[in-house]
Design a protein that fits this description.
Length: 405
């Protein structure tokens, strides 16, 4: 059962909805406008709106708490099954098979609660077996000698009877476990889970609380970590932590409660999903770089961040650039075309792609200077396996052209 309050207002991506002032108070509507204008376009009651609020979700999904018993549920335009698959790829959850039993969820908020329960249970299981420990360097004044003594400081302060020692402590208070503790702490503040799941999360948090320092961490701290036989089971835990930390926005106070929104930027998720899909399915003779930085003018700090660069793994030469656009269009915008052509010129390649979740009514295939720019489609709402195969064929067309012009 989802923890979303029964009084939640539901918004579909990009579909305006009129809400009466009885359902959404002036205070709640103003709070939504002030703190979440990027996620929901808020039009205040006026003669234009018939005296009602007009709310439009702007490409985010999730849940925004406004008051203890009122929130905004932002629903995706894509089927939930496809959204779950996107999350699997984007957060590297496929290999852990964590979402296999979650497709009967009725909402993204319900998925949030179920994944919170999974994380809590897996942390409790690991706690029963013993949390992973590692050696951490400590430097502090001690009443005894341990490790290396700072002899210079001792000579300068002979009256100080407690020497400053540097030693290594075998402890569970390491960043591997601090990530888990902070994610559990974040979940407890979300207000999205039912009491049963909250109890499980709190129990897991208490297991860590006495031995692990509560340290704020970023979602990026969960990525690129080193695993080995002693902590290999932490990989799925950190993947789940990244999911919770990346989509928990800034908090605000509602009465005596601190509540966190759960928000997924669909444009960012679509980009992450496309990148992960390509990594998993590209042939071995093509390498992929995501969010590659290209310095335009180092002295001024101007730079490109290119969504995807595909290169020949043997020569290292760029074959094509790709930019994802999570929007439905009749035809690609001039600014988007100019952007991806500039990327291609920066990387000295002749092919550039604009990837959309739905094929434009007027697809693009044009030559600008010596750069060919095309619109390609990784369709959402269809079978993702078939859509992915079709998308890959479109992308590999550029690769074959680059090798055999």
């Amino acid at each position: 059962m989802s923890a979303t309050p029964a009084t939640a207002l539901t918004l579909q991506e990009y579909v305006p909805r009129l809400v009466s002032r009885e359902r959404l108070s002036d205070a709640a509507g103003t709070l939504l406008w002030r703190h979440y204008a990027d996620q929901v376009r808020v039009e205040f009651p006026s003669p234009i709106t018939g005296g009602q609020w007009r709310l439009t979700s702007t490409g985010w999904v999730g849940y925004i708490p406004l008051e203890p018993h009122l929130g905004i549920a932002l629903h995706p335009k894509v089927p939930l099954h496809d959204l779950f698959r996107m999350l699997e790829y984007a957060y590297d959850l496929r290999s852990f098979r964590l979402l296999d039993d979650q497709f009967d969820c009725q909402s993204l908020e319900e998925l949030y609660e179920r994944l919170a329960g999974i994380l809590a249970r897996k942390i409790l299981d690991r706690a029963r077996d013993g949390m992973y420990r590692d050696y951490v360097a400590r430097t502090e004044q001690l009443p005894y000698i341990a490790g290396a003594v700072d002899v210079v400081r001792l000579a300068r302060r002979p009256w100080d009877v407690q020497p400053e020692c540097t030693y290594h402590e075998h402890t569970v208070d390491i960043d591997d476990n601090q990530i888990l503790a902070w994610a559990l702490f974040t979940i407890t503040r979300s207000g999205l889970c039912t009491e049963r799941t909250r109890a499980s999360v709190r129990r897991a948090y208490r297991q860590l609380q006495s031995t692990v320092t509560l340290t704020p961490v970023r979602a990026g701290d969960c990525v690129g970590r080193r695993y080995h036989r002693l902590n290999a089971d932490y990989a799925p835990l950190h993947a789940l932590c990244r999911f919770f930390l990346e989509h928990s926005g800034p908090h605000y106070e509602a009465g005596e409660h601190t509540m966190l929104p759960f928000l997924v930027d669909m444009a960012r998720l679509y980009e992450q999903f496309v990148v992960a899909w390509l990594r998993a399915h590209l042939p071995s003779n093509i390498t992929l770089a995501a969010q590659e930085r290209y310095e335009i003018d180092p002295s001024s700090g101007l730079a490109f961040a290119i969504d995807v660069v595909l290169s020949d793994s043997r020569s290292g030469a760029a074959l094509c650039v790709l930019d994802t656009k999570y929007k439905r269009v009749d035809m690609p915008a001039t600014a988007d075309v100019a952007q991806v052509v500039a990327y291609a010129q920066a990387k000295h390649c002749r092919d550039s792609l604009l990837a959309y979740p739905q094929a434009p009514a007027r697809p693009l295939d044009a030559i600008i200077g010596d750069v060919r720019v095309r619109s390609v489609t990784f369709a959402l709402g269809d079978d993702l396996e078939n859509a992915g195969a079709s998308f890959l064929d479109q992308v590999l067309f550029s690769y074959s052209r680059a090798l055999y012009p």
